Amino acid sequence: MSTATKSAHIDGLRQTLMETLAALSDRQNPMEVDRARAIAEVANVLVSTAKVECDYLRLTGQDRSNFL
Questions:
Q1: Cβ proximity of 4 and 16 under 8 Å
Q2: Cα–Cα distance measured from residue 49 to residue 40, given in angstroms and rounded to the nearest whole number
Q3: pLDDT tens by residue, 43-56
Q4: Cα–Cα distances in angstroms (integers) from residue 56 to residues 39, 61, 63, in the given order
Q5: Is the Cβ–Cβ distance between 28 and 36 less than 8 Å?
Q6: Which residues are CB-neighbours of 64 under 8 A, at least 6 positions away?
Q7: Could you give phi then psi for residue 36, rounded to 5 degrees?
Q8: What dihedral do alpha carbons 46, 38, 12, 50 form, nearest 10°?
Q9: DSSP code for 61
Q10: DSSP character for 32?
Q11: Cβ pair 67, 50 in contact under 8 A
């Protein structure tokens, strides 16, 4: 189970992306490019939602988020 699955936090996303990069770089057993691409696409959606959440916090004057 990846870190992102264990923790719905931006740090989990970063860790998963770093693991994906390492797996792609593994010359002995590289990750399939399609799988890495799918991970990157999901990460992009998560980053986009975090941006929306930041905008919401800014507009409503809140200072906390469970995701970030």
A1: yes
A2: 14
A3: 899 889 889 988 98
A4: 26, 8, 10
A5: no
A6: 57
A7: -60, -40
A8: -10
A9: T
A10: P
A11: yes
